[in-house]
Amino acid sequence: MQNQQESDLPAKLSQPALRALSGAGYWRLEQLVEVRETEIKKLHGIGPNALKQLRSALEARGLSFAGEITRGN
Q1: Which domain holds residue 36?
Q2: Where on the tree of life does the source sit, at the highest rank (predicted)?
Q3: Residue 67 falls within a domain, yes or no?
């Protein structure tokens, strides 16, 4: 199992959101491009604020959740 020091998820994510993502096997933003936002929403501990932070972090790298078009590209 990877440790959190290898994670590049937003540092300000709440602990429940981080636990939900790590419990589902997501440690890096690049992994989220393979999953739809609707699937991430289903994770217990992921709320609107966590989704906003994840979306912003992905967009900052020119990435997006699966099936979404990145704005500005």
Answers
A1: 13-60
A2: Bacteria
A3: no
Q: How far apart are CA 67 and CA 37, in angstroms?
A: 9
Structure tokens that stand for 3 in this block: 């440790």
Q: Report whether pLDDT(73) > 60.
A: no
Burial code (b: 16+ CB inside 10 Å, e: under 16) for 37-50 equals beebeebebbeeeb
Instruction: Let me know: does 37 contact 51? Beta carbons within 8 Å.
Output: yes
Residue 60 has a CB neighbour count (10 Å cut-off) of 10
Residue with tokens 């959740």: 65
Structure confidence at residue 5 (pLDDT): 57
Please indicate, yes or no, if residue 26 is contained in any of the structural domains.
yes
Domain harbouring 46, CATH code: 1.10.150
CA 34 to CA 51: how far, in whole Å?
A: 15
Q: How many domains does the chain have?
A: 1
